[in-house]
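During the reporting period the student researcher (J.K.) took over the structure-prediction task from the postdoctoral fellow and processed the backlog of single-chain submissions. One of the processed entries is reproduced below for the supervisory committee.
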Amino acid sequence: MDGEKHGPMSVDAGLDLAMDAGLDLVEVSPTAKPPVCKLLDYGKFKFQAQKKANEARKKQKIIEVKEIKMRPNIDTHDYDVKMRATEKFIGNGDKVKVTIRFRGREMAHIDLGRALLKRVEEDTVEIAKLESMAKMEGRQMMMILSPK
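J.K. obtained the following structure tokens:
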């Protein structure tokens, strides 16, 4: 039983062959004409499949959405600090949601917020791509950046 093909045979003959070898008869392709079966240790097969699935699960990266909050009249140093955090998040492979919150009379100057988001987009053009354009939701304007 070292991988040789036995050709078409009845189910009873296949089961007898499997019994003699101390293995299980496993149907691999039930839709084929005739159906294809293999002789293998089913418990070992399931264990190997589980191990492979666990390895794949370990290696996958969960993408988080990090949020950077700003105000429309942010100072240059504060802006630089927020941009460093943004670059760090994108460098780690996370998406970044840039939010600008308008309070009180700032709602009259939405153009300042739009200009600030445009500036963020231009400063991160090397490392990130714009996933969703700047849009207003209530008193907040937001856009989402994702790693290139």
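The committee noted the following: The longest strand covers residues 128-137.
J.K. will present the remaining backlog at the next meeting.
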